[in-house]
Structures are given as structure tokens and as C-alpha cells.
């Protein structure tokens, strides 16, 4: 029987419309635990196995300390408001104060890491940072936040950087992510830092869109796909992956600036972690570098690589 | 542009002498060599992703075409392996209708028209012809038809200049300029039976 009433217009949902937010704040409580698990998953039969196991333990230590730290102090409300309003990074790395919470985070992480199984060189570096005076520690924090890692104390600085990852993830988690705005090509909208890698996500409401992960504060920000994260060129973008392996990890190579950033298809493989899988896929870096591309992503665990 | 934090910057700030990697600094000797050795049997596979517009209708949905095997230097075209809605496109936001979802079969269809073809009167098969032949023939037939059937004035003697015996259907996925040009050319002949993107 046909209805006497005219049919009403109703949109037909033929797919999941993607409306990605500009930025997604990290969840420190799960971030490091998830990363530790991923590092450990990657260990078996991997040429970097021992290093991945070590980083898994370090991420485990990051996860262990994150729970009961004192609240970190954000920059002054007025300064934050100005940053939000004028499209600047509210927790810009240069403007974040070295406060008691930051120093506490670092020392707790170093204490947690002390029980880890590690080579002598690492143990010596860890002993070095545990014994460092507050002034030396401030100096190292300054170096890390300026991306100026001195070669003769590299391991010490990477330990400090691991602590700062915890601190900045907690700072970023307390921001109003919806108020962040794009600050510059390839710069994190929360802390202004460089990216580590990017992901094509499978999140509901943002399916198939690409988010770039910050190497420092783990904020993820949306960048249009098929576009160089470093220089925003859309010409001459190619994707390289290791033949015969899963094509969920690719290097997005840009002929305009000669850089590449890895792109993980987490929609296909949700286990991928921007930091852990970046280290584990270092073989791809070696191969892409042979083709003459330079790495645009920064990962402190691959510093100098 | 993103500040590059590469080996160069790293070396620039390091104290002279040997600059190692974090892996080496942590005392994991040998794993980098193992990594370098492990990639030797492998080579890189190249793929590309290309933005385009779905050619079916006037909605103009964004699509991403995934292809492999293209080699610009050798002038070799790649093969398209997958087509998906463009999640960054403001119109369709990553979605595609059933026709758009079938684009891959449309691109790779064996029956796809790739060059001008003609089925002559009385014939039962299509033959490939040159563009020159096709365009000359279309122009000739249009001219003849227009000459025979053009209506300059209606019964009341009002000038109408219409040509009703031929129609024109133009493509959907065209640019604004193409649509404008098509409209001007076709309407200037007096043709009324006409549709293209410009109507929408």
C-alpha cells in the first residue's frame, strides 16, 4: 500500500564523512603504555631488537611515572590567551618554564629507568643525568628544546628528552585542542616542534585523513594528504615502501624540497605507533636516503641517524 | 618550511670529533650494521596517489587514485590499483556513491572507449577512426542537418533562430571555462536540446 504522504528528504549515509579536527591532544595515561607494548611487540627477529627492547623499557618507565606526577605549570593565562587568539603555539618550547614539575618528572623517570636492563654506556649516561646538578640539568633541557644535541653527551640528552616527552605530553593534554590553529608548515600547533611521522587514521568521523604526530608533545594535527608536511608542496609527491613488506609504512617523498616524512596507515594496521614504528622502520630511512631524500621527521631515539 | 634537524645540524652543534647516533651512544654496538645488512636483499617499491575529480556527475566529488609502476624518467604510465573518496575534499569528505565506488572498473574496463569509433549506417560493428575523420564527419552532418532544419522564424513571423533536430550532451567533470565555451558554441548554432555542467 502506498502512503498518501509525500516522502520526506533524508540524506542517505553512504559512508563515513570525514570532518577531522585541526588538532587532537595526547592522552599521556595511555600513550606511553601503548608505545611500550608496541616497542616490545617489534623486538622478535628485528635487527634493532636489543635497542627496541631497551626503548620499550624506557617507554614503560615513561608510562610508570606519568600517573602520579604533580600538575605541570602552563604559561601565564594571558600569554596562552594571546597564543590562542593569534594562531601561535601556546606551549612553545622556548616559552615553557623549567619548573619543579618538569624537574620532578625527569628525576622520577631516571629513577624508574634505573632498574632497566641496559648496556654499560646507557647505564653510565643514566648515572650521569641522575647525578647532574640543577644547573647542568637546565642546560641539558635547554639543549634538547633547541634540538641541539651535543654528540659527546648524546645518550644523556636522549634520557632528558624522554623525560620532556612525558612533561610536554602532559602540558599538551591540558590545552584546549579545539582552540589550536595551524602555526607554520610542519610545526606542531601546540609546542611548535617538529613532527616525528604522520598517520592516515581510521577514526570515526575522520576516516582516511592524515594526522601528523609531534615528536615532543605527541599532539596530532591534521594535514591534507598528498602534500609535503615540510614544505606544503603538492607537486612531485611519491610514496616509497620496502618491496615485499606490508605497505602500511611508506615514506612520503617530496621532489620540491627533497625531504620525506613517514606515513603510517593506522587505518589498516591500528597497532602502528608513530615513535616506535619510526625507529623500527629505520631500514626504510636507509633506503630512501640512498635515493637522495632527507629526513624531515625528528625522532630523538634516532638522533644522528 | 620545517626546520630540518638532520645530521647536518646535529654535527654543527656537536663537539668536533666523532658524531654517533643515539643507538651507538646508548651502547648498542652492532645493531646498526645488522640493520644495514638486513635491508640489502630488499628494494624500494614506488607508488603514487593522485587527486582527481569523479567524472560521473555534476556533484564533482574528489577522489584519490592509487597507482603503481609509473616511471616518469622512462615515460611509463603506472596502473591504477585502487580509487577512493578524497577525505580532504569539501564536497564528499571521503565518501563515494555506488557509481564512484565502481570507478576502478570503469578506468580498467575493456569496453572503455579510448578513441573515436563509428558504426556506419547498416553496419553491425564499431570501427576505429581518426580524430580528423570523426570531427570532419560530425561537422559535415551537423551542418547538413542545420541547413535542412533550421527555423529562422515561427508561424507568426517572429525571429526565433532555433535548431531542434540535433541535441548536444557535454561532459560533467569539466571546468567552468570548458562549460562556458561549450555553452557559447552550442547555443550560437541555435541548438536548444543541450545539457552540460553549466546548467547545474
UniProtKB/TrEMBL annotation, chain A:
Q: Where are the transmembrane segments?
A: none
Q: Which SUPFAM superfamilies match?
A: FdhE-like
Q: Where is the FdhE C-terminal domain?
A: 226-302
Identify the residues that the record assigns to the FdhE central domain, covering every copy: 188-225
The record's annotation in InterPro entries points to: FdhE-like_sf, FdhE_C, FdhE_central, FdhE_N, Formate_DH_accessory
Q: Which UniProt keywords apply?
A: Cytoplasm
Domain of life, per UniProt, equals Bacteria
CDD domains in the record: FdhE
Q: Which Pfam families match?
A: FdhE_C (PF24860), FdhE_central (PF24859), FdhE_N (PF04216)
* Record domain FdhE N-terminal: where: 20-184
Keyword check for Cytoplasm = yes
- Location in the cell: Cytoplasm
Q: Please give the PANTHER family that the UniProt record associates with this protein.
A: PROTEIN FDHE
Family assignment? Belongs to the FdhE family.
Described by its record, this protein's role is as follows: Necessary for formate dehydrogenase activity.
Q: What is this protein called?
A: Protein FdhE homolog
Amino acid at each position: 500500500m502506498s502512503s498518501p504522504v509525500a516522502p520526506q528528504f533524508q540524506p542517505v549515509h553512504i559512508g563515513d564523512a570525514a570532518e577531522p579536527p585541526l588538532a587532537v591532544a595526547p592522552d599521556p595515561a595511555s600513550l606511553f603504555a601503548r608505545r611500550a607494548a608496541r616497542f616490545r611487540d617489534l623486538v622478535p627477529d628485528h635487527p634493532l631488537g636489543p635497542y627496541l627492547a631497551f626503548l620499550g623499557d624506557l617507554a614503560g618507565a615513561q608510562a610508570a611515572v606519568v600517573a602520579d606526577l604533580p600538575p605541570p605549570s602552563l604559561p601565564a593565562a594571558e600569554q596562552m590567551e594571546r597564543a590562542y587568539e593569534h594562531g601561535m603555539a601556546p606551549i612553545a618550547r622556548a616559552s615553557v618554564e623549567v619548573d619543579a614539575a618538569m624537574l620532578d618528572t625527569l628525576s622520577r623517570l631516571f629513577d624508574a629507568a634505573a632498574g632497566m636492563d641496559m648496556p654499560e654506556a646507557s647505564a653510565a649516561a643514566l648515572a650521569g643525568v641522575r647525578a647532574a646538578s640543577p644547573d647542568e640539568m637546565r642546560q641539558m633541557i635547554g639543549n634538547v628544546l633547541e634540538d641541539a644535541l651535543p654528540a659527546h653527551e648524546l645518550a644523556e640528552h636522549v634520557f632528558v628528552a624522554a623525560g620532556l616527552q612525558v612533561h610536554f605530553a602532559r602540558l599538551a593534554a591540558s590545552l584546549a585542542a579545539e582552540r589550536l590553529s595551524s602555526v607554520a608548515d610542519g610545526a606542531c600547533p601546540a609546542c611548535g616542534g617538529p613532527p616525528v611521522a604522520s598517520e592516515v587514521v581510521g577514526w570515526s568521523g575522520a576516516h582516511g585523513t592524515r594526522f601528523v604526530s609531534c615528536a615532543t608533545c605527541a599532539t596530532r594535527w591534521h594535514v591534507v594528504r598528498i602534500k609535503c608536511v615540510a614544505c606544503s608542496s603538492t607537486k612531485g609527491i611519491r610514496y616509497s615502501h620496502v618491496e615485499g613488506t606490508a605497505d602500511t609504512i611508506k615514506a612520503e617523498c617530496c621532489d620540491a624540497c627533497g625531504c620525506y616524512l613517514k606515513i603510517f596507515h593506522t587505518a589498516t594496521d591500528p597497532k602502528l605507533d608513530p615513535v616506535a614504528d619510526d625507529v623500527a622502520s629505520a631500514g626504510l630511512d636507509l633506503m630512501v636516503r640512498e635515493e637522495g631524500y632527507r629526513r624531515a621527521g625528528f625522532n630523538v631515539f634516532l638522533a644522528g641517524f | 618550511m620545517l626546520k630540518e634537524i638532520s645530521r647536518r645540524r646535529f654535527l654543527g652543534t656537536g663537539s668536533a670529533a666523532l658524531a654517533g647516533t643515539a643507538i651507538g651512544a646508548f651502547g648498542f654496538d652492532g645493531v646498526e650494521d645488522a640493520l644495514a645488512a638486513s635491508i640489502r636483499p630488499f628494494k624500494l617499491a614506488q607508488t603514487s596517489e593522485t587527486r582527481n575529480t569523479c567524472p560521473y556527475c555534476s556533484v564533482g566529488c574528489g577522489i584519490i587514485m592509487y597507482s603503481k609502476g609509473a616511471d616518469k624518467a622512462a615515460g611509463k604510465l603506472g596502473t591504477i590499483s585502487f580509487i577512493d573518496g578524497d577525505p580532504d575534499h569539501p564536497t564528499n569528505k571521503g565518501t563515494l556513491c555506488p557509481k564512484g565506488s565502481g570507478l576502478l572498473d570503469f578506468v580498467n574496463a575493456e569496453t572503455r572507449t579510448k578513441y573515436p569509433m563509428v558504426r556506419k549506417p547498416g553496419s553491425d560493428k564499431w570501427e576505429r577512426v581518426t580524430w580528423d575523420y570523426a570531427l570532419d564527419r560530425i561537422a559535415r552532418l551537423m551542418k547538413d542537418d542545420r541547413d535542412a532544419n533550421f527555423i529562422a522564424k515561427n508561424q507568426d513571423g517572429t525571429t526565433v533562430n532555433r535548431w531542434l533536430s540535433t541535441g548536444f550532451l557535454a561532459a560533467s567533470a569539466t571546468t567552468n571555462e570548458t562549460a562556458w565555451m561549450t555553452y557559447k558554441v552550442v547555443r550560437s548554432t541555435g541548438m536548444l536540446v543541450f545539457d552540460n555542467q553549466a546548467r547545474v
